[in-house]
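W.,

You were right to be curious about this one. When I first looked at the sequence I had no strong expectations either way, so I just let the prediction run and decided to look at it fresh. Below is the sequence, 158 residues in total, followed by the output.
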Amino acid sequence: MDLSKLTLSDKLIAGGGIVYLISMFLNWFSRSESGFSISASGWDYFIGGILPLILILVMVAQVLITNFAPDTKLPDPPVPWSQVHLIAGAAAAAIVLLRLIIPAEISFGGVDTGENFDRAFGIVIALIAALVVAYGGFLKSKEGDAPTASGGTGSAPF
């Protein structure tokens, strides 16, 4: 695996994706009182944790397939891949930011306790990783689509 094939944007997307995946296993929210503690990781939030992971994994997969399996033909999206990276990266970062801002409520058996979780370090790491991926997507959009093996770009630039 020749990592020199990767551009700065590719490295940011892949590295941020790895860190985001690791952050999914860390505590995002927690609460401790009277010797009793409860916590939630990124896996406990579909929209706020798993959906951004899916967006990031699509970005990472496209980068890895394009650079390390150039004979593999990916489907052409309705917009160029560079714009897919920009949109997916920005969406992932925005969703994680909203998950950080909006307090997570504690409920037991569907009964709301009126208490909120305290934010933990895992969600901060997830936000930083998502911002790194978003910046990589931004840089990728500035690069435009690289020429394919047939010599074209696969999509018309705007």
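Here's what jumped out at me. The mean pLDDT is 86. And, maybe more interesting for your project: The CA atoms of residues 44 and 128 lie 19 Å apart.

Coffee later to discuss?

I.
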